[in-house]
């Protein structure tokens, strides 16, 4: 696999970053994940807009222009012959060569790393069975709207899910679901309304979320942006999640309770189809 690091395309074994890099020492870094379907980048402009926002919130500078960023993505898709999969991008604050909590001088060069991952995003077998989730306290920091690489708690949440023999964990703050470990969370009420938490600093403003809500409204479906409890979710007609890597993915069980019939819901399946159709 060919990867990109600071201006060079290299075999992955030859790509290196300094041990003093602030991404490594302090998680002083932001990232994006963009999916690739039939060689095409999905929602690329949305991911770049959010990247710029994340960078701005942390006073990080972009190492390359948007045009260059697009060129790098395309080059990696071509070099690695990616038909379906993901591209991971990370920008760190780089390093002035020592460990210091204070930011290095403003002219310090940021680190830019990108790599691809081949993965079946459309024909994902989980779409047919749906995912099972557990709930877990959301103890993350207060700026979950910034896509930082500080992902230790989501990793712990994922492991709690694994230990409970389920797929993922929905995080709960003050009695209401914020989001999944690496995805946005939704329910469908008995009236057929799609409910997902409103945008704030408590959740990542998903690019797939924005596209899904736009498509739902275009199809005349009712959308309500508000928090919901695990209790409400357990009694919902359907549940699902969205992310760049999973698109729309049905959820069929929460904390051991079957959602609806315990099978992927009608609306979740339709939204997945609509999303894929629109993306292609
Ligand atoms: N995760 N919420 C969280 C906490 C996330 O980490 C993600 C994405 C999302 C969905 O955002 P989007 O639709 O823009 O992918 C919501 C990526 C895929 C990851 O960490 O791999």
UniProtKB/TrEMBL annotation:
InterPro entries: Aminotrans_IV, Aminotrans_IV_CS, Aminotransferase-like, BCAT-like_C, BCAT-like_N, Class-IV_PLP-Dep_Aminotrnsfr. CDD domains: D-AAT_like (cd01558). GO terms for cellular component: cytosol. Pathway: Amino-acid biosynthesis; L-leucine biosynthesis; L-leucine from 3-methyl-2-oxobutanoate: step 4/4; Amino-acid biosynthesis; L-isoleucine biosynthesis; L-isoleucine from 2-oxobutanoate: step 4/4; Amino-acid biosynthesis; L-valine biosynthesis; L-valine from pyruvate: step 4/4. Its cofactor is pyridoxal 5'-phosphate. Its EC number is 2.6.1.42. SUPFAM superfamilies: D-aminoacid aminotransferase-like PLP-dependent enzymes. It is an enzyme of class 2 (transferase). It catalyses: L-isoleucine + 2-oxoglutarate = (S)-3-methyl-2-oxopentanoate + L-glutamate; L-valine + 2-oxoglutarate = 3-methyl-2-oxobutanoate + L-glutamate; L-leucine + 2-oxoglutarate = 4-methyl-2-oxopentanoate + L-glutamate. Keywords: Amino-acid biosynthesis, Branched-chain amino acid biosynthesis, Pyridoxal phosphate. GO terms for biological process: amino acid biosynthetic process; branched-chain amino acid biosynthetic process. GO terms for molecular function: branched-chain-amino-acid transaminase activity. The keyword Acyltransferase does not apply. Pfam families: Aminotran_4 (PF01063). Acts on leucine, isoleucine and valine. Belongs to the class-IV pyridoxal-phosphate-dependent aminotransferase family. This is Probable branched-chain-amino-acid aminotransferase. The lineage of its organism: Bacteria, Pseudomonadati, Pseudomonadota, Alphaproteobacteria, Hyphomicrobiales.
């Amino acid at each position: 696999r060919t990867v990109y690091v600071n201006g060079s395309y290299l075999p992955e074994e030859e790509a290196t970053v300094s041990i003093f890099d602030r991404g490594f020492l302090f998680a002083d870094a932001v990232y994006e994940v963009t999916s690739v379907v039939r060689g095409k980048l999905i929602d690329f402009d949305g991911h770049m807009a959010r990247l710029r926002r994340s960078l701005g919130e942390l006073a990080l500078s972009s190492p390359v222009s948007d045009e260059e960023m697009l060129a790098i993505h395309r080059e990696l898709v071509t070099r690695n012959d990616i038909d379906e999969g993901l591209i991971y991008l990370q920008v760190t604050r780089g390093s002035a060569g020592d460990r210091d909590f204070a930011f290095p001088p403003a002219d310090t060069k940021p680190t830019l790393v990108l790599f691809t991952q081949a993965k079946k995003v459309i024909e994902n077998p989980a779409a047919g069975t749906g995912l099972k989730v557990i709930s877990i306290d959301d103890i993350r920091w207060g700026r979950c709207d910034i896509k930082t690489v500080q992902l230790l708690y989501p990793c712990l949440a994922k492991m709690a899910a694994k230990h409970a023999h389920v797929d993922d964990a929905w995080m709960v703050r003050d009695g209401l679901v914020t989001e999944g470990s690496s995805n946005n969370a939704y329910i469908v009420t008995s009236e057929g309304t799609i409910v997902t938490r409103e945008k704030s600093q408590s959740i990542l403003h998903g690019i797939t979320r924005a596209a899904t809500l736009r498509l739902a409204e275009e199809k005349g479906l009712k959308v309500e942006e508000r928090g919901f409890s695990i209790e409400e979710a357990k009694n919902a007609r359907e549940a699902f999640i969205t992310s760049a890597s999973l698109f729309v993915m049905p959820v069929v069980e929460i904390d051991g309770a079957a959602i609806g019939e315990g099978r992927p819901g009608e609306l979740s399946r339709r939204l997945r189809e609509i999303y894929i159709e629109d993306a292609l």
